[in-house]
TrEMBL record:
Biological classification of the source: Eukaryota, Viridiplantae, Streptophyta, Embryophyta, Tracheophyta
Domain of life of the native organism: Eukaryota
Name of the protein described by the UniProt record: Reverse transcriptase
Native source organism of the sequence: Nicotiana tabacum (Common tobacco)
Length: 183
């Protein structure tokens, strides 16, 4: 069935941008991830004069990165249904930025943890987890009759009859213990 506006046929598309988010037909967030990584690179390039300056201390560069670049990359992350592949893409982008800030390449064979420690930046997966836990705490403090909490009482027994691995839900991803040294 074609959608028409007057005599013109409106084409079907796989995704569209609404406000800041890219909404895809299949419910994935791959385009969102690449968009926000691109936004992070734009912010990084705007500040590259400071971030790549050898006279600026690494800790100051890390602080600037944490205040300007990372929030642009992690905007709205508490609501993303993230997969390990999405987190990996974010980690790769972050480490490329941090290595460039320190003046190193992958050929120097310096471990990611050493670079993060030098700059004073925690891993991005910990920040994603922290943001999601913060949002989850806000949801749990709402009354049980709030619309956002009503979904906890839904019964999905009929949908569990499919073969294969079950869908990942918020209750299976969040209650895992936090990593050691996570504040």
């Amino acid at each position: 069935m074609d959608v028409r506006l007057g005599s013109q046929v409106i084409p079907k598309i796989g995704s569209f941008k609404y406000l800041v988010l890219v909404i895809q037909v299949d419910g994935e967030i791959k385009e969102d991830i690449t968009h926000f990584i691109g936004v992070g690179w734009i912010k990084w390039r705007l500040a590259s004069g400071v971030l790549c300056d050898k006279k600026v201390p690494s800790i100051l560069k890390g602080t600037f990165y944490r205040v300007v670049v990372r929030p642009a990359m992690l905007y709205g992350v508490e609501c993303w249904p993230v997969k390990n592949s999405h987190i990996q893409k974010m980690k790769v982008a972050e480490m490329r930025m941090l290595r460039w800030m320190c003046g190193h390449t992958r050929m120097d064979k310096i471990r990611n943890e050493d670079i993060q420690e030098k700059v004073g930046v925690t891993p991005i997966e910990d920040k994603i987890r922290e943001a999601r836990l913060r949002w989850f705490g806000h949801v749990l403090r709402r009354s049980p009759d709030a619309p956002v909490r009503r979904c906890e009482r839904l019964d999905f027994a009929a949908s569990l009859l499919h073969r294969g691995r079950g869908k990942v839900c918020i209750h299976t991803t969040l209650p895992r213990p936090a990593p050691v040294g996570f504040y």
